[in-house]
Amino acid sequence: SENTYLCQIYNLTLLCMEDYIVEPQSVQFLVQHGFDFNKQYSQGIPYHKGNDKGNENQSQSVRTFFLELIRAKKPLVLHNGLIDLVFLYQCFYAHLPDSLGTFTADLSEMFPAGIYDTKYASEFETRFVASYLEYAYKKCKRENCKLKDSSGQHLTVEFCSYPANMSRYIDYRHCSLEEESHSVGAGNKVPVCEKFSAYGWCPKGVKCPQSHNIDLIIDEDDKLWEEKRKKRKHKWKRRKNTGEPAKAFEQESSGKEVELAQNGEEGPPRKQSCFEPAAATEVAEITPNSEGRPLEENSMDTEPEVSSDTKEQKETHGPPSQGGTHRAGFDAFMTGYIMAYVWMLKKGKNMDTGAEPWLPDCHNKLYLSGKSVPLQIVKSLFSKSSKAHSQKMKLAWAS
């Protein structure tokens, strides 16, 4: 039925066969979240960077698989996806072009159905106060459950029933609508980590004494938003009754000024209590993820919940920030869920469902950290496609 999706998640553990540099912090992060480096180096699927070596079209390799994805002409959905696109292009396609214009021109031809960034959608379309992946997913999940409870149009996700002989290849995770540690954290009055709350990343990691519980973070944000909404409603009502002119600036309870437009806020909403230069944000989201599978279960009252950093341990078993596992499958599922939810909302606003492109407001727009405008994935009149890309396109459609 409409707004119902069949979901399958695949994880491929890869191994670059060329020399490469690793950052100790990234390796520690992956180990903390269960990544098995022994498995990667013993069983990882080999790949090489840059241009093809020989006739790649005839071999069973990651590059051949990536070419199949291009042949499918389906929309590509990512979260904070600029670095992901650079990685995919360089590792599975060809040498990176010298200019950004050539790179975006190549991408526009590789994915003619469009590229969509859920981080951009979370900030500029749904206007969440935070837009890191797990926050955006859980926020969409909560709002979707409200729609379902009120018998409104809502998103439904279904999973495959795999045969028993495939069990060793499938990783199941139990996730409820809210984390089991949610009430525990609230009862202990453990303060929320402000940095994690704003960015989904904390330099202290699992050693942080404060809570990284996303449910608690969203609870706090929702409460603050409701308080501000009531305060603004009261002020506007007072101004209307007294004839006082509307002000461009409103003093918030935090002691910081937030610029307000006459008819709403300008630009994406931000958490004001923890603002830092954009370069310090989204570190966790561009760190390579590990292998794994999300929950695939359809016996629950709501759709299965999947999280890239699901707190599966009760917080009483360790520090309040004790985390679960960052997994590629979790991240992929959440990214798809967010996009499906945003599409459902947009489609519900009298949009022509048969119109092209698929979601015009987010079509070929990549989030840029710290910028109020996205990177447009278009082929400029002044940019040509790269030679390596043209050769790959011929290879892709030769058969």
From TrEMBL:
One example GO MF annotation: 3'-5'-RNA exonuclease activity
Top-level taxon of origin: Eukaryota
Lineage, broadest ranks: Eukaryota, Metazoa, Chordata, Craniata, Vertebrata
Domain C3H1-type: 187-215
Gene3D superfamilies given in the database record: 6.10.250.3220, Ribonuclease H-like superfamily/Ribonuclease H
Segments of skewed composition (Basic residues): 230-240
GO biological process, alphabetically ordered: snRNA 3'-end processing
Annotated source species: Aptenodytes forsteri (Emperor penguin)
Protein name: Target of EGR1 protein 1
